[in-house]
Amino acid sequence: MVATRIDGAPSASLPPQPGGLASLPEAESAHSRSGAQATAARYATAIGGEGMFNPSARHALVQSIAHPLYEKTLQDRFDKGFTTEFNGSLGLDLTGQPAAGELFVSRTTPVSTSVTSYADTEATVDVRCTGVLSRTGHNPIALSSKFTMTLRLMWTDGEWRLRETDQHNE
């Protein structure tokens, strides 16, 4: 399987992504249904990146997207899912890096979004996604999936922030 960027360039030419929001294009974060949808799609992409496999990058990401009241809960939940044992099962070290000379890719691409509830200060958005998880090397892996992330957002300090997220495989 060969992945390509939207512009057609091979993914091998992409620098490793830290998995944070800085690696994503800016999205509308308007206080509206469409702003909530754009934010949810952006957050889903970040949550599905390589940065989630690195504790420091994961913590920075959660701090940048979580509503302050729910940051610790989200952090604990993600830390329980992205363990050193899980990294090891994928051939990654405790910082989410593959062995020297290998390449690891984790990408989540939003396919569609739908707002399932919307109020002035809260929104719930379903983001249907495709995902790719791949590592080259001695025992290569290549997995793809379709799933839906449900993101519960809260409007605070002029932006949508993550309260909770669930994922359901399709």
Structure description:
By secondary structure, the chain is of the alpha+beta class. The chain has helices at 33-47, 55-65, 71-81, 84-89, and strands at residues 104-118, 122-135, 141-156, 159-169. A four-stranded antiparallel sheet has the order 1-2-3-4, with helices on one face. α2 packs antiparallel against α3 (71-81).
Layout of secondary structure:
Layout: H1 33-47, H2 55-65, H3 71-81, H4 84-89, E1 104-118, E2 122-135, E3 141-156, E4 159-169
Antiparallel strand pairs: 1-2, 2-3, 3-4
Short description:
The protein is an alpha+beta fold. It has helices spanning 33-47, 55-65, 71-81, 84-89, and strands at 104-118, 122-135, 141-156, 159-169.
Strand order of the largest sheet: 1-2-3-4
What is the CA–CA distance across the termini?
A: 21 Å
Measured as a percent range, the helix fraction is: 25-40%
Given helix and strand content, the structural type is alpha+beta
The total beta strand count reads 4
Order of helices and strands: HHHHEEEE
Shape: globular
Q: Average pLDDT across residues?
A: 86
Strand content: 25-35%
